[in-house]
Design a protein that fits this description.
The chain is α/β, with parallel strands linked by helices. It is built from 14 helices and 18 strands. A hairpin with a 7-residue loop joins strand 14 and strand 15. It starts with 6 loop residues before the first helix and ends with a helix. The chain binds iron/sulfur cluster (2 copies).
Amino acid sequence: MSLPTDGKDLVESMKTVKSKFKFRGGVHPDYNKDLARDKAIERMPVPSELVISMSQHLGAPAKCIVKAGDYVTRGQIIGERNGFISVCVRASASGLVKAVEKRLGAAGGSAPAVVLDTTAPVPEGVVVPEGPILQPLDWKTASREDLLKRVEEAGICGMGGAGFPSSVKLNPPPGKRCEYLIVNGAECEPYLCADHRLMVERASRIRLGVEIMRKILGECAVRIAVEANKPDAIAALEEAFADMVGNVEIVVLPVLYPQGSEKHQIFATVGRVVPEPPALPIDVGCVVENVGTTVAIADAVEKGEPLLERVTTVSGDAVAEPKNIIAPSGTKYSDLVAFCSGVKEPPAKVISGGTMMGFAVPHLDISTTKTTSGLLLLSRKRVFQYTSQACINCGRCVRACPMYINPAEISKAVEADDIADAERAHVMTCIECGACSFACPAHRTITQFCRRAKNSIRARIAAEKAKAVAAQSAAEKKEPAK
Ligand code: SF4
Ligand code: SF4
């Protein structure tokens, strides 16, 4: 495979190819995409109340800088970036801050959030700015540094689920170089169609986002990865990228879960293997960004529009009208469902995200973030009730695991409370894809066992670090510097 420094490639125009690499493992869940696949993206009105979390991304939550009684305007920074792996949070609508308090997030933890009354009148003396929130930039003449700063000040993080700060990802550390920019349009999670609709409806914005990222990263090859079950998205991308030069390929991937996982996407598109954590894609010369993030980067640069909203698929057989909705960050799930004309029947299960990697949530009083790709409402007949049984050593989970680890061994170790054994079995390599649980005939909650072990190991490492820092500072107090 030729690299982007090859002069011949730089004048080549885009081509569509089939993926040459297939990872081992993976499963074929029932995709159920037909419910929302053909529903054009709709913008919902700003709800009367937004609950904007300070923890919408991977890393340290943003530091809230507003208080109850403040009036904030759309796009105003309400949470400052709080560390290297963090992003700022901006108000996704104008309104009166009713409270700043801890609120439950989709993953089960709670984080500080700004509760905004968007119906409050604009106080005297407050000017709600008109026009773009940030100064639009001409990406062709703007410097790499200005473009990178724009991604940071727009509060952009990965919108495919992980929420990694994009300004960090697009700025490789010294000695590392991006050879392949991979745009992730696989969207392999059942039910979800938000990325699919973006590719169909906004392919030209994806093209612009790619041009901007390639300018930030330096000359690199581009791979746009799409699963074969999205022919209309592939056609739209082919049209939008037709005249783009410089080693650009649309890579059509076989339909296989978890094809959208960053590591598997890198292997499927360019045949490179990301080593075990803490190795990152850039260690094998790759940067992966989701199609939604790519559009957000285009909008932040060309329109001066920070990341304040996103497309979320609301689907499932219990929702009256499945839709792909653009909603401001902080929209309550209950408002999303109301915009879909409510429910056909009370859902037996509500999932934030997809059915494989999403989180079951206890109620609809939870709000969207920059990473909320879907909300699923499932009826009793779609929710299988089962009892977890003892492992029968059938090995199906091992065959399904795309990370080449032994899920059965890990689940048994965690069941026996032997986290050290789970660690020896490489549980930290687990990407929590759920393929093992899906494949297990004994209905063992293997993914949850993996999550439990990983959380426990992370807590132990954090405690060890804190202890080392405390010991270091005590030693420094005893022996003050001369
Ligand atoms: S062990 Fe982890 S990576 Fe392997 S199938 Fe299970 S959830 Fe996926
Ligand atoms: S699939 Fe389930 S029963 Fe089979 S080996 Fe894995 S954990 Fe055991």
